[in-house]
């Protein structure tokens, strides 16, 4: 499959950070991109080159309309962690993909997924969706590729982290200091999804994508120190404190779901879950994630100076 042939891509989740990064990259490269959103038109982010129509993943006809005349789909589910609702979303997406004859679906699971079953909804609902996609598309002509990212550097360019990093040299995050993490950016995610949409020989595979290096908290702080040209120290944040702060922004149910990942990592049950794979995935998808220090150096951190946005 050549990435020089324009695709018509339905991006599920394009009004969010991860799906938005993918939608922007696709539009930049000349592909036709469209999505649906439940938000009122005035509240939707404007994404150049992306058509946004009203719609809901819970209504099959809306998903079918999104996929009509599309050639590919890139899917990331919203921050919903109710198993029944996630299953409905996944079933609608899979059915619409089959019935409209998509060539390939790339599913971004939004997280790495442990091999063993857990009691963490953020893992198990994403495992459930992947299972639905695999089973529903197995007997069709629709190819499925799954990407499972670790943790995003963009999470740290925020009102919660930015001022402390710039003014105090403190990098606080709800991961153990010794946890090896393959940090990556939203742009790196978009590059990986783009490759998964276009590269030959990857159909049916799942990739634990990640950054160019695996970093502990101390090593991540050193990368930020290099990028910011100042000393930075890493402080592991209590996941409960993180959850309480996040709930004020996205609501308690979604915050509980997101924080479940960090509670799991804090337990130490599977310390290498978010680590890298020695470059195997980057080689298979022909992507080159940006080193953390280079990503840090490219961000406009001055906007957080003095605690101001």
UniProtKB/TrEMBL annotation:
Cited InterPro entries: NAD(P)-bd_dom_sf, NmrA-like, NmrA-like_oxidored
Keywords of the record: NADP
NmrA-like domain segment(s): 8-250
Highest taxon above the source species: Bacteria
Keyword NADP: yes
Similarity comment: family membership: Belongs to the NmrA-type oxidoreductase family.
Protein name: NmrA family NAD(P)-binding protein
Taxonomic placement: Bacteria, Bacillati, Actinomycetota, Actinomycetes, Kitasatosporales
């Amino acid at each position: 499959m050549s990435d020089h042939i324009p695709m018509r891509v339905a991006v599920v989740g394009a009004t969010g950070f991860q799906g938005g990064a993918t939608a922007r990259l696709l539009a930049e490269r000349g592909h036709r991109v469209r999505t649906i959103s439940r938000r009122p038109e005035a509240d939707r982010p404007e994404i150049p080159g992306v058509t946004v129509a009203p719609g809901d993943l819970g209504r099959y006809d809306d998903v079918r309309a999104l996929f009509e005349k599309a050639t590919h789909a890139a899917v990331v589910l919203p921050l919903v962690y109710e198993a029944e609702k996630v299953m409905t979303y996944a079933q609608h997406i899979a059915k619409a993909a089959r019935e409209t004859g998509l060539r390939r679906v790339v599913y971004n699971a939004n997280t790495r997924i442990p091999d063993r079953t857990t009691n963490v909804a953020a893992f198990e609902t994403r495992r459930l969706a992947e299972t639905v996609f695999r089973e529903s598309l197995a007997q069709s002509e629709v190819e499925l590729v799954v990407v499972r990212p670790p943790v995003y550097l963009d999470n740290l360019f925020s009102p919660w982290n930015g001022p402390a990093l710039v003014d105090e040299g403190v990098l606080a995050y709800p991961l153990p200091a010794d946890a090896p993490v393959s940090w990556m950016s939203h742009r790196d995610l978009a590059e990986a999804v783009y490759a998964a949409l276009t590269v030959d020989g990857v159909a049916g595979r799942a990739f634990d994508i990640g950054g160019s290096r695996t970093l502990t908290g101390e090593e991540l702080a050193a990368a930020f120190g290099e990028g910011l040209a100042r000393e930075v120290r890493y402080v592991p944040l209590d996941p409960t404190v993180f959850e309480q702060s996040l709930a004020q922004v996205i609501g308690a149910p979604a915050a509980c779901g997101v924080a479940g990942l960090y509670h799991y990592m804090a337990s130490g049950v599977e310390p290498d879950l978010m680590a890298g794979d020695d470059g195997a995935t980057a080689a298979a998808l022909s992507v080159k994630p940006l080193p953390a220090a280079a990503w840090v150096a490219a961000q406009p951190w001055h906007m957080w100076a003095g605690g101001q946005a």
